Amino acid sequence: MHYEKLSIPDVVLLTPNVFGDERGFFMETFRQSEFENHCGPYQFVQDNHSKSKQGILRGLHYQHQHPQGKLVRVTRGEVFDVAVDMRQHSPTFKQWVGVRLSEKNQHMLWVPPGFAHGFYVTGKEAEFQYKCTDYYAPADEVCLRWNDLTIGIEWPLKDGAQPQVSAKDAKGLTFERAPTF
To answer: Do the beta carbons of residue 70 and residue 131 sit within 8 Å?
Structure first.
């Protein structure tokens, strides 16, 4: 596994070693000891899997009292995945980083606790899987507005069309109103 710190150094892009031939491929997707060496001493307690169609945007979500770190990957299709630093004492506070995750590149992204997270489906559809460091707590979930001008995320929207978002995500908070860490 190759670990690459991004422009926000706490957010890490993981690239597995893939061994393939005419039969298919094999890759290791997680090893606790290596993850801890490169990302920190986190333990995962919950795995999630979602499926979305092209043009769907999910996020930007985080939990404030029970923050979750997430190790995310796409096993079918492609997404543009985004992490926003909500840690007010961080040198990268209010900054965002985005990467393309797909079944072809097989990259994974480590989004530590203290970040808002979301993704936009750029392929025909996407299956998105992620490990979490804390349990989902619906009453603790915060939604940051996906198109907040203070953050200025450059989403690769298909033909410039507005993404499809849930009713909850459409009511996301502006950065100024969102709780920080």
So the answer is: yes
Torsion sign over Cα 126, 132, 135, 141: negative
Q: pLDDT tens digits, residue range 129-157?
A: 999 999 999 999 999 999 999 999 999 99
Catalytic, 135? Answer no
Give bridge partners of residue 24 from the DSSP assignment. Answer: 21
Domain membership of residue 178 (yes or no) is no
* pTM for the predicted model, two decimal places: 0.95
Residue 20 located in a structural domain? yes
CATH number for the domain harbouring residue 30: 2.60.120.10
The C-alpha atoms of residue 84 and residue 11 are separated, in whole angstroms, by 10
Cα distance between residue 154 and residue 142, in whole Å: 21
Average pLDDT over residues 97-113: 97
- Selected catalytic residue, list 42, 62, 120, 130: 130
Q: Is 130 a catalytic residue?
A: yes
Give me the catalytic one of 61, 62, 117, 120.
61
Contacts of 138 (CB under 8 A, 6+ apart): none
Domain range for 138 is 2-170
pLDDT digits (tens, 9 = 90+) for 66-92: 999 999 999 999 999 999 999 999 999
Contact 84, 119 (CB under 8 A): no
Q: How many domains does the chain have?
A: 1
Q: Is residue 158 part of a domain?
A: yes
In a domain, residue 176? The reply is no
